[in-house]
Every structure is written in structure tokens, then in C-alpha cells.
Design brief:
Layout: E1 3-7, H1 15-26, E2 30-32, H2 45-55, H3 57-68, E3 76-80, H4 82-91, E4 100-103, E5 118-125, H5 132-144, E6 148-155, H6 171-186
Parallel strand pairs: 1-2, 1-3, 3-4, 4-5, 5-6
């Protein structure tokens, strides 16, 4: 088991993210859930984008980088939707990350990916924010640089299908995602820092 940083979606640090962190802790992981907004979470995606606009994408990334600075270099970078993009952006400065776990969105510039990096992606099929042709291009580029990439698509699920408090929620897809995600994390080498 190891260390994970879990970045929230555009909605903010919602109860579903905190519950996911607790579930990961119950599986033996150490989990950090940074609040990239410093504001209460929103109830709609429109409010979330307004809050992101208020805080600013550069500030969100700065806060993410500050949150991971004290964490071990081999921390797993994970994120939901917007947070997947944040996790991918942080990877540029964290080349020794143990893995990249992406929920509801692609993340990482393939140029920042080391050969052999374990990457797992979970997406709705179709996903209004992730056009299929762009996902296909990203997938080809990631495998082209040697990422150990797994992509799972969930037919008919809404974009943020693992969050039980939004209309997109799909219980069956969420359960399957959790099974796959926990297996992915369990298969990573135990790189937990001792001491």
C-alpha cells in the first residue's frame, strides 16, 4: 500500500471525494485530499466552473503543487474530472510518481510520462467532456511513450458517475470502477515510506 493524493473535480472538495479517501484509507493507503479552492464545494457544474474562474486555473495548479510538495516522490497522483487534469499537470514535476489514477478525465502530457508508468483511466462512454477522438489520440500517445495504460469505458454512465450526490451517478459503474481501481492500487509495489 502507499501514498495517494486525490484531487477534486470542478465541484470542489465534495463529500464524495472525502468518502473516496476514507475508502482508500480502509484499503491501507495514506490519502491526502487538498482543497484547491479554499471555498465550500458547489452543487452544480455551472457553479463549479464559476468558482474555478474566480480562483483561477493557475492558482489551482499552484495550490496542487504546494499540497504535494511535502509528500514522498512516489506518491500516486489521482483525480476526479478536473482533478485528473490537475494530477496530470503535477506529474510534470513528479517524475517518480508511483502511478497516475484518472477518474472522469484524461490527464498528463505524454511528454511527462516515463516508460512503465502505471496509468489507469475510467471514463463514461460517451463523455461530454472527453470526445472519443481526443481520448483515442491521448491513448495512442500515452502507449507510444511506454505508459502501462489501462482504459475503462462505462457505457451509458454520466460524466461524474462515481459521485452519488450528482445526477450523473451510476451505482453499477461506480462499483466496477472501485473494484478495478483497488486492484490497480494493490498491484503497485509497496513503496510506503517507513519512519
Amino acid at each position: 500500500m502507499g501514498r495517494i493524493v486525490l484531487f477534486h473535480s470542478v465541484y470542489g472538495l465534495r463529500p464524495a471525494v472525502l468518502a473516496a479517501a476514507d475508502r482508500l484509507r480502509a484499503a491501507g493507503h495514506q490519502v491526502t485530499t487538498p482543497d484547491l479552492y479554499g471555498e465550500p464545494p458547489t452543487n452544480t457544474v455551472e457553479e463549479g466552473f464559476a468558482l474555478l474562474g474566480k480562483v483561477g486555473q493557475d492558482e489551482v495548479l499552484r495550490r496542487a503543487q504546494a499540497a504535494v510538495a511535502p509528500l514522498p516522490p512516489d506518491t500516486v497522483l489521482a483525480g476526479w474530472s478536473m482533478g485528473a487534469g490537475v494530477a496530470g499537470a503535477v506529474l510534470a514535476e513528479r517524475p517518480d510518481a508511483a502511478a497516475l489514477l484518472l477518474l472522469h478525465g484524461t490527464g498528463a502530457d505524454p511528454a511527462d510520462v516515463r516508460p512503465g508508468l502505471p496509468v489507469q483511466l475510467h471514463l463514461a462512454d460517451p463523455d461530454e467532456y472527453e470526445p472519443q477522438d481526443e481520448v483515442d489520440d491521448w491513448q495512442r500517445a500515452m502507449t507510444g511513450v511506454g505508459a502501462r495504460l489501462e482504459v475503462f469505458r462505462y457505457l451509458g454512465a454520466g460524466h461524474l458517475f462515481t459521485d452519488p450526490d450528482v445526477p450523473d451517478h451510476d451505482a453499477a459503474a461506480a462499483d466496477l470502477t472501485w473494484d478495478r481501481m483497488l486492484a490497480f492500487l494493490a498491484a503497485l509495489p509497496d513503496r510506503r515510506t517507513v519512519g
